[in-house]
Design a protein that fits this description.
Layout: H1 3-27, H2 31-36, H3 43-70, H4 75-102, H5 109-115, H6 123-155, H7 159-205, H8 211-218, H9 225-231, H10 234-241, H11 251-259, H12 266-298, H13 308-316, H14 319-357, H15 363-385, H16 392-416, H17 422-441, H18 458-475, H19 481-498
Helix pairs in contact: 1-7, 1-14, 3-6, 3-7, 3-11, 3-12, 3-14, 4-10, 4-11, 4-12, 4-19, 5-6, 6-7, 6-14, 6-15, 6-16, 6-17, 7-12, 7-14, 7-15, 8-12, 11-14, 13-14, 14-15, 16-17, 16-18, 17-18
Length: 499
C-alpha cells in the first residue's frame, strides 16, 4: 500500500483514540457511566452502535466470503438476521429499558437476571457472568482473526503483528472511555461501514457490461438463486434462518437498549438501525457475488475468499480511498471487539468480583477493576486468535449460538412471564449452553463429525432452553410476591412511558 493509504489509517486510529480520551473526561467517574453511559445515549448513537457492534468483521469479510463460496445459499443467513434484529427491537428493547431500571437500576445482563428474582447475589448471576466471559473470549478472538488477516493481506505484515495492532488500538480507547467511548466510536465506525459497503460492490460492478455479463461469470462457480432454492433442504433453511434467534441473547447488543435515554427514542433507533442493517447486508452479499464474477471474468487471484473486500479495495481505488476502505474493515472489527471487551469486563467486575468479595467497593476502584478486566479478556482472546486456521464465520457462529441459546429464551421469559422462577432461569441458561457445546464439540456421528454438521447448534440449544424454562416454571414453586410486584411495576411504567 502507498503512503496515502497509511495516512488514512493513521487519521482513523487517532480519531478513535481521541474519542476515547473525550469519553474518559465525560463519563468514567462512576461505574454507571463507565458501563452504560449514564443511560443517556441518543437513539442515533444507539442504532449505529448496536448495528456496528453486531456486524463486526464478518460483515466485510465473513459474509462476502460465504457469498463468494456458496452463492445465494448465504442469503438465507442474512434474511434470518434481519428478521431477528427487527424482532429484537420490537419485543426486547422497550421492556428491557424499563425493567432493568425498575430492577434496582441493573447495569449488566447477569445483574438483571438476579434482581429479576429479588436476589442481587443469586447464583444465576454468577453462572450467566461465567458464560459471558467464556463465549465473549471466543467471540473476541474471531474479531482478532479478522484483524490479523487484514494486516497480513493488505499490508504484508506478519499475522501475529496484525493481531497486536488491532488489539492495541481497541483496548486503548475502551480502557479510557468505557461505554460512551465504545458507543461513540461505534457510531463513527457504522457510518464508515455504510459508505464502504455501497462503494465497493458498485465500483466493482462498473467494470462489467451489465448484470447479464456479471451474473454469467458469477454463476460459473456458485449456484444462482433458482438453483439454490431448488437444492435447499428444510434443515439447511432452518439452520440459516435460525441465526435470527441469536439476537435476543447477545449481551453486547441488548445492553444498548438498556443505555438509550428513553423508551420513546427506541422507535427512532429502530428505524435508523434497520435501515442501516438492510443496506449494509445487501452490500456485503453484493461484494461476495461481484467478487466471484470478477475472479472468473478478469482472472483475479483470490487465495482466501474472506479477503475479497480487501482485494477490491486495493485494486479499484486510489490509495487514499483504499486506506479509508481498510479503515472500514478495522471499524467493523474494532466496534465489536470493544463492545465485547466492555461487557466481559462489566461481568467480571459487577457480577463476579463484587459478588464474590461480598463488600462494597467505591466507584473509582470499581472502574479500575473493570479496566483490568478488559485487559485480561483481551490477552486470552489474543492467545486463541494465534491459530490462523480458524475462519471468522465459524468462530462467530459458535459464540452467537452459545449466547442465543443460553440467554435468548431467558431474556424473553424474564420480560414476558410473570411467574418465572430463579430455578427455571438456571435450568434455561445451563441447558442451552450445554446443548450448544455438545452440538459443536462432541463427535457423535459415525464419521466422527459433530451434530453441528447436520443443523446449526442454536436451533436445538434454543429449543432445549425454552423447554427447560417452561417446564421448571410450570411445575416448580411460585415466585415471591415481591418478584411479581416488580414485574407489575415494570409493566405499568412501560405502559405509562409509551402512552
Amino acid at each position: 500500500m502507498q503512503f496515502e493509504s497509511y495516512l488514512s489509517l493513521a487519521i482513523y486510529f487517532l480519531a478513535m483514540l481521541g474519542i476515547g480520551l473525550f469519553a474518559y473526561r465525560q463519563s468514567t467517574s462512576d461505574i454507571s457511566g463507565y458501563i452504560l453511559g449514564g443511560r443517556q445515549v441518543s437513539p442515533q448513537v444507539t442504532a449505529l452502535s448496536a448495528g456496528a457492534s453486531d456486524m463486526s468483521g464478518w460483515m466485510l469479510m465473513g459474509l462476502p466470503g460465504a457469498m463468494y463460496v456458496s452463492g445465494f445459499d448465504a442469503m438465507y443467513i442474512a434474511i434470518g438476521l434481519v428478521a431477528g434484529a427487527l424482532a429484537n427491537y420490537l419485543l426486547v428493547a422497550p421492556k428491557l429499558r424499563v425493567y432493568t431500571e425498575v430492577a434496582e437500576d441493573s447495569l449488566t445482563i447477569p445483574e438483571f437476571f438476579a434482581k429479576r428474582f429479588g436476589q442481587s447475589s443469586a447464583s444465576v448471576r454468577m453462572v450467566s457472568a461465567a458464560i459471558i466471559v467464556l463465549f465473549f473470549t471466543l467471540y473476541t478472538s474471531a474479531g482478532l482473526v479478522a484483524g490479523g488477516k487484514l494486516f497480513e493481506s493488505a499490508f504484508s505484515l506478519d499475522y501475529q503483528l496484525g493481531l497486536v495492532i488491532t488489539l492495541g488500538v481497541v483496548v486503548s480507547y475502551t480502557l479510557l472511555g468505557g461505554f460512551l467511548a465504545v458507543s461513540m466510536t461505534d457510531f463513527v465506525q457504522g457510518c464508515i461501514m455504510f459508505v464502504a459497503l455501497i462503494m465497493v460492490p458498485v465500483v466493482a460492478f462498473g467494470d462489467f457490461d451489465g448484470w447479464q455479463q456479471m451474473s454469467q461469470a458469477a454463476f460459473q462457480s456458485v449456484p444462482g438463486f433458482s438453483e439454490s432454492w431448488h437444492n435447499l433442504t428444510l434443515v439447511a433453511l432452518v439452520s440459516s434462518l435460525g441465526w435470527g434467534l441469536g439476537y435476543f441473547g447477545q449481551p453486547h447488543i441488548i445492553v444498548r437498549f438498556m443505555a438509550i435515554r428513553s423508551v420513546q427514542d427506541i422507535s427512532t433507533a429502530r428505524n435508523i438501525g434497520m435501515s442501516w442493517m438492510i443496506v449494509t447486508i445487501i452490500g456485503a452479499l453484493a461484494t461476495g457475488l461481484v467478487g466471484v464474477a470478477y475472479a472468473n471474468q478478469f482472472g483475479l487471484e483470490v487465495s482466501d475468499p474472506e479477503t475479497i473486500f480487501i482485494l477490491f479495495s486495493q485494486l479499484l481505488f486510489h490509495p487514499l480511498i483504499s486506506g479509508f476502505l481498510m479503515a472500514a474493515i478495522l471499524a467493523a472489527i474494532m466496534s465489536t471487539i470493544s463492545s465485547q471487551l466492555l461487557v466481559s469486563a462489566s461481568s467480571l467486575t459487577e457480577d463476579i468480583y463484587r459478588v464474590v468479595s461480598g463488600k462494597e467497593i467505591d466507584n473509582k476502584k470499581t472502574v479500575t477493576i473493570g479496566r483490568f478486566g478488559v485487559g485480561g479478556v483481551a490477552i486470552v482472546a489474543l492467545l486463541l486468535a494465534l491459530d490462523q486456521s480458524n475462519t471468522i464465520l465459524s468462530l462467530v457462529s459458535n459464540a452467537w449460538a452459545g449466547f442465543g441459546a443460553a440467554f435468548g429464551p431467558l431474556v424473553l421469559f424474564c420480560l414476558y412471564k410473570k411467574n418465572l422462577t430463579h430455578t427455571a432461569a438456571l435450568a434455561g441458561i445451563i441447558s442451552g449452553a450445554v446443548t450448544v457445546l455438545f452440538w459443536i464439540y462432541v463427535p457423535v456421528l459415525a464419521d466422527g463429525k459433530t451434530l453441528s454438521s447436520v443443523i446449526y447448534e442454536i436451533i436445538p440449544g434454543f429449543a432445549v432452553s425454552t423447554a427447560a424454562l417452561w417446564l421448571v416454571s410450570t411445575f416448580g414453586d411460585e415466585p415471591s410476591s415481591d418478584v411479581k410486584a416488580m414485574y407489575n411495576q415494570a409493566s405499568q411504567q412501560l405502559a405509562k412511558q409509551q402512552s
